[in-house]
Design goal:
Elements (H helix, E strand, L loop, with lengths): L13 E6 L10 H17 L2 E8 L3 E8 L4 H20 L12 E4 L2 H13 L1 H4 L14 H4 L12 H4 L5 H10 L7 H12 L7 H11 L15 H8 L1
Antiparallel strand pairs: 1-3, 1-4, 2-3
Helix pairs in contact: 1-2
Protein name: Transposase
Pfam family, one: Y1_Tnp
GO molecular function: DNA binding; transposase activity
């Protein structure tokens, strides 16, 4: 069965996950993280894609991005991925693939999930028990969104900018979002939507996306329609 095209609406943020092949490491030194982020910045600028949040884990990456052209994010990820594989293979005298197939992606319901997704991404090292607070992990956008650094790669989303009238107010309000952890249900909802390439959002937003794109934006109900005559007929055999 042919794969459905990726869901895309201009200006709608997307959550991206790319994993190392067989969940193996894709970063081996501090220089590797720096090279990846530099190339991400250049590729995003070239293809008019905004990066709102990121975390680079040992064997995978999370990115929160907004594109204005249908192939913007794909172009960024393809250019970045190919360059980084060549860099790793040359640096460590290795051959073969580095990434696990296509990157995962989901459209994000801005009003209900965007800031939650900021937190989900930047709390990854905490959930992995690598650090106790996101600010203690080096390779994360938390240092720009809630810390004392300004990372040029980051373009604040309008919803982030609405957290305060000044940079100091916004960063303080953002820090306060991290006083509690995300629920297990929220974490699983984000994972399911991203890994299965559906929409992360409330029912009305999912329906809006489906109507706009004239295609499904969520999985079909498993087991068939139990009220249909066809289902009843098959069940009775």
């Amino acid at each position: 069965m042919a794969r459905l095209p990726r869901l895309f609406i201009s200006g709608c943020p997307q959550h991206i996950i790319q994993r190392g092949n067989n969940r193996q490491a894709c970063f081996f030194s501090e220089q590797d993280y720096t090279v990846y982020l530099d190339k991400l910045k250049n590729s995003a600028a070239k293809h008019n894609v905004s990066i709102h949040a990121f975390v680079l884990m040992t064997n995978h990456v999370h990115l929160l991005m907004t594109a204005h052209s249908i192939d913007g994010i794909s172009q960024v990820m393809q250019n970045l991925g190919r360059y980084y594989v060549r860099y790793i293979n040359h640096t460590y005298q290795r051959t073969g693939t580095l990434w696990e197939g296509r990157f995962k992606s989901t459209l994000v319901d801005t009003q209900h999930y965007l800031l939650t997704l900021y937190r989900y991404i930047e709390l990854n090292p905490v959930r992995a028990q690598m650090v106790e607070h996101p600010g203690a992990y080096t390779w994360s956008s938390y240092h720009s969104n809630g810390g004392d650094r300004n990372i040029s790669l980051i373009t604040p989303h309008t919803l982030y900018l609405a957290l305060g009238n000044t940079e100091a107010e916004r960063k303080l309000a953002y820090q306060n979002l991290f006083t509690s952890h995300l629920s297990d249900n929220t974490i699983q909802t984000i994972r399911d939507a991203t890994n299965k390439a559906w929409v992360l959002g409330e029912k009305s937003f999912i329906e809006q996306v489906a109507n706009t794109l004239s295609r499904r934006a969520k999985p079909l109900t498993q087991g068939g329609d139990r009220r249909s005559e066809i289902f009843k007929a098959v069940k009775s055999k």
